[in-house]
Each structure stands twice: as C-alpha cells, then as structure tokens.
Amino acid sequence: MTSSPTADSLAATAASIARRAGRVLLEARAQAERDGVTGRDLKDLGDARAQAAIAGWLAAEAPGDAVLSEEAKDSPERLAADRVWIIDPLDGTREYSEGRDDWAVHVAVWERGDLVAGAVAIPGKDLVLDSATVVGASGAIADPPRMAVSRSRPPALVEHLRATLGLEVAPMGSAGVKIAAVVRGQVDAYVHAGGQYEWDSAAPVAVARAAGLHTSRIDGTPLTYNRPDPYLPDLVVCRPELAAQILATIAEAPSFGDNP
Questions:
Q1: Is 252 annotated to bind ligand?
Q2: Can you tell me which residues bind Mg(2+) 2 (predicted)?
Q3: pLDDT, tens digit, 9 for 90 and up, residues 190-226
Q4: Of 73, 70, 238, 85, which is closest to residue 147 (Cα–Cα)?
Q5: Is 74 known to sit in a ligand binding site?
Q6: How far apart are CA 129 and CA 215, in angstroms?
Q7: Which of 1, 40, 218, 245 is most exposed, with the fewest beta carbons within 10 Å of its own?
Q8: Hey, where are the domains in the chain?
Q9: This prediction's pTM
Q10: CA 23 to chain centre
C-alpha cells in the first residue's frame, strides 16, 4: 500500500509547482512585451498560462486530489475529498501587467479539515517561501510597527488602525507579497477587510503559520478553508506580540467590513 505524503513532502511539491509557474509567468510576460500585449490582455494571458501549467502538473503529481483554483470551475466534489490543492495561479494581476515584481503564485494543500502545507512564489524576486523550510521573523518589532497595505485600494479599516495605533503603512501589491513581507520581517502586520477568497490567502497563511505568526479573521476567529462558499473576505496576519492589540482595536472600530 502506498503511504500518504507527509506535510513536508507536500510543501516541497507545492514549492516546486509555484516556482515552475513563476517561470511560466515571467516567460509569458516577456513574450507579451515583445508582441505588444498589455493591460487586460496581459492579465488574462498570465492567468491562463499559469492555470494550464499548474493543472497539468497537479494531474501528474497529485492524481486523484481535488483542486480549488481561482481560474478553474469549482466542483462540489472537493467538499468530500481528503486532500484539496487551493491555487491562485497569479495573485496580483494588476502588478503583473504593469511590469512590477510584487505579484505571486499561491499553492496550498488542505487535508482533512485544515491547511497542512503551502508555498508562495514571488518570481520577480526569485523567491519561494514554503511551510516546510520557512524561518520566522526574528528581532524587535519596528517602532512604530509597520503594516502592509494595498497600494491600490486599502480598506477603511486600515486607516482606523493606522490612526489609532500609530502604525507606519507600507503599500505593496498582492496578498501573497504582503503576507510574505510579514514572514520575512519587512513589516509587522497585514490586515485586510476588503474582500478576498480562499485562494488569495490559503498558501501565504500556511507559510505564515509555519513561521509562528498569528493568523485569524478580523474578529479573531480561525481562518478555515475548503468551505462550500470560498469567499473569505478578511484576515489578520501579524507578529504574535501585536495580535491582541490589533484585534482589540478592530473590535472597537465604528464599522468595518467589505470596502472597495
């Protein structure tokens, strides 16, 4: 009987797939630039190329496992599966289409109720973080603490946190890049309440948990995955020392929720 893969081996596979997908995306963008493909067409091209590549690799390397991907039709069969790969083939299409490097590839593994592995590739920086090998941030929290925020549409809650706690904000691209910045110690927190789906956070949350960071919904409840409705609109990822203060400040906010 074939033994089930370990969390570490799943993380290694996730990292390999994320890295390879990153190469596909870099090559696709370079070719698009030569061909004059820009804007929405470039976003769609990147999504399609990465999705096709990842789907093919998973079919060969994880046959029989279910998949939840932003760029593929969902199936209720995943709800009864023992293992589900949660994929965002290109997180940060805007940044990708603008020639920036703050976009990512997310590959996570959910197994029997919880995330067990994940990897985030940031191809523009030749970086892959995975849950088996990640090393958590060390050293003192910045003074004032730094919080990653959306460069294009930060939710109203972010301004409340900044003003109340005196945080310094650091605008950057995709959710994966923001959470990776917390993992790497470049910032101390990332708070989002503007609407996301499971594929936006599953892989970076798996890595963040492995790095010893706090991860939760903005009301402090756990982030759960592989649910019938994959809409998962908010999260907090931060250094553990800041979690209680951030959550208390959110709870005291006049209002929060999905903001454009």
A1: no
A2: 90
A3: 999 988 999 999 999 999 999 999 999 999 999 999 9
A4: 238
A5: no
A6: 17
A7: 1
A8: 7-130, 146-251
A9: 0.94
A10: 18
What is the reported pLDDT for 75?
94
Joined together, the tokens standing for residue 133 give: 């090998």
Answer yes or no: is 90 a known binding residue. Answer: yes
Helix axes 39-61, 7-35, angle to 10 degrees: 150
User: Is 35 annotated as belonging to a binding site?
Assistant: no
Residue spans of the chain under pLDDT 70: 1-2, 153-154, 255-260
* Interatomic CA distance for residues 147 and 181, integer angstroms: 9
70 is in an annotated binding site: yes
At the second CATH level, the architecture of 146-251 is 3-Layer(aba) Sandwich (3.40)
Q: So what's the pLDDT on residue 137?
A: 77
Residues pairing with 236 in the sheet: 191, 216
Q: Give the pair of three-digit tokens for residue 110.
A: 């959910």
Largest Cα–Cα distance of the chain, in whole Å?
58
Helices (H) and strands (E) in the chain, counts: 7, 10
